[in-house]
């Protein structure tokens, strides 16, 4: 009996450390593993930032609309620089004919050490003709040509480490501020283009409408898009994260954005602001109380720029790639 007592006492003390260390042996969650100290994984973000600042990135935007809607002014306002025209001589702008002949201009802009190769594609004369039958063909052809160019580089045996990306990441469609329903031409255009590119509808020169007319016009456009099953950006089908879905739902409620473009500065309350001067005052472009241009800029640049590129690559380009490879494999 005395020989068993020491064994009983010797087995009791180890039970205390096991209970103290039990939190360290909690089974990991299905999506990850528990770390016991600092590893430095977060440094990957710094590496990506440094690499992006060195190499820069590309962003390609297309602007579609009739003449006189301020397409060039809107793009200049977006990037606060003269990026929509390439002057042949100092102080002069290149003359672009009013035909559906696409013009692409590339600039390299830099902000706080981050370089961006920006390509702006203008579509002058869209919808200006008496007979506008198939006037979207040059635009669709141009977008598919950029997909084809990227595909040819991608399927090469010996290909470049970084394939030049000329694919259109976003198409801003400008609507006249008529206050009426959309024309069949506009509906057919967006129906065709929304299948191959990210389309962002915009009401141009929204200062010509009252607040009541603007709200009613936006509601009519939303009803037209819903009736004809036209999916504009951001598309509901691609919302995966609940937070992204909540943000995109708020954006979809504002679409189409009612914007006012201006590339001239004016003095307002001692500050220099972008705006348009009228007889009754100055319309401030970046003032949310005057127009929704800040929402458009946030969508295209500050919050969804990378998402525009991801959807272009993973959805629209992938669809084109599958179709082209299937065609090439047919006997």
From TrEMBL:
Family: Belongs to the TRAFAC class TrmE-Era-EngA-EngB-Septin-like GTPase superfamily. Septin GTPase family.
Keyword Cell cycle: yes
MF (Gene Ontology): GTP binding
Domain of life, source organism: Eukaryota
Gene name linked to the record: Sept12
Region Disordered, residue ranges: 1-29
Protein's cellular compartments: Cytoplasm, Cytoskeleton
Feature: compositional bias, Basic and acidic residues: 1-11
Protein name, as recorded: SEP12 protein
One Pfam assignment: Septin
One cellular component (GO) term of this entry: cytoskeleton
Keywords carried by this UniProt record: Cell cycle, Cell division, Cytoplasm, Cytoskeleton, GTP-binding, Nucleotide-binding
GO biological process, one term: cell division
Principal subcellular localisation of the protein: cytoplasm
Stored Gene3D superfamilies: P-loop containing nucleotide triphosphate hydrolases
Tagged with keyword Nucleotide-binding: yes
Residue intervals of the Septin-type G domain: 55-327
